Amino acid sequence: xxxxxxxxxxxxxxxxxxxxxxxxxxxxxxxxxxxxxxxxxxxxxxxxxxxxxxxxxxxxxxxxxxxxxxxxxxxxxxxxxxxxxxxxxxxxxxxxxxxxxxxxxxxxxxxxxxxxxxxxxxxxxxxxxxxxxxxxxxxxxxxxxxxxxxxxxxxxxxxxxxxxxxxxxxxxxxxxxxxxxxxxxxxxxxxxxxxxxxxxxxxxxxxxxxxxxxxxxxxxxxxxxxxxxxxxxxxxxxxxxxxxxxxxxxxxxxxxxxxxxxxxxxxxxxxxxxxxxxxxxxxxxxxxxxxxxxxxxxxxxxxxxxxxxxxxxxxxxxxxxxxxxxxxxxxxxxxxxxxxxxxxxxxxxxxxxxxxxxxxxxxxxxxxxxxxxxxxxxxxxxxxxxxxxxxxxxxxxxxxxxxxxxxxxxxxxxxxxxxxxxxxxxx
Length: 427
Hints:
Elements lengths: L5 H37 L15 H11 L10 H18 L6 E6 L2 E5 L7 H9 L2 H11 L3 H32 L4 H7 L19 H14 L11 H4 L9 H26 L14 E2 L5 E2 L4 H26 L7 H32 L6 H20 L12 H5 L5 H12 L2
Antiparallel strand pairs: 1-2, 3-4
Helix pairs in contact: 1-10, 1-11, 2-10, 3-4, 3-5, 3-10, 5-6, 6-8, 6-12, 8-10, 8-12, 10-11, 12-13
């Protein structure tokens, strides 16, 4: 089935843009409600339960409150950039959502409609380029407010996000080495098992690239400024971080931007490591569009619906996981945060990329065909590397507590120990 062209393509693109944006907005609204329910569950309380049935209308009440509250702009602020910063906080995640395939192709009377707004041929590079723009909103908000606390939060945020962008990009390099392609729909297809057509790996990339998925998960937490990496906000230390001086809907846009990033990040992890819209243990949804336009499989409207539901469930899983992490793990100190990024993640990822490159070349040279056997061999290697990383690497050497140096020298005198503890706490 040929793809839609001409006027039908323009109409389909406009409709997809509107529908996908509405889906993203509804997802953000439900995420804020879910965040409070998860927090209530973790703290053994009910969460929102007064506005509407089960508190479901609390989201609308919050939105109305943001709109109606008084708008305050500091007199010394740079007004143009002060207004622009909240928009920049929303822009990257919203634009990134347009290149994510949400389901299998939809057949129509006018042709095939792919469930992606913009199927760009440089999907992976586009993701890295647009996601790197998020730091501009943070640093611009801190600088334009002309406030010490805001400026400090902006500096901390920019340093953190730039640091973990490197880890995020490097964590995706093994995916490209394994797939040999940068297009997101192709990455989804390669994680499916086909009875015919080009060879695929037969399993999700989370299995042959387990450690890479772990690195991306942690780096994504840091990129979205979620606990335990919420140092740019750190309300206990710098009042509220880069958005201290914001109020009303401008503050609400930062609030929405965090959940936009949360959903987009969960969707990207699903595409890169969990097969995207692929339904596990079922080959009926294995539909691939080749470069010449040939369609392998049998696309139908109900398969499109089922695959979109599967993709939503995978994304929701990561969103809920991020929320559970928020209410489980305490915040890092800033020196621990930077040590983890520069002294642990980047060196470990460099070694991991080299080992995976050697393993892939060795399997190819040995004549192992692409498929389940190839993926199983890489999974075994990743399992061993995961054990080494979690149980051998670090162990208090780099990401250390305040008293690590004292424990390392048990024979030191009381005065030396006291001085060491004080030095660790002041880092």
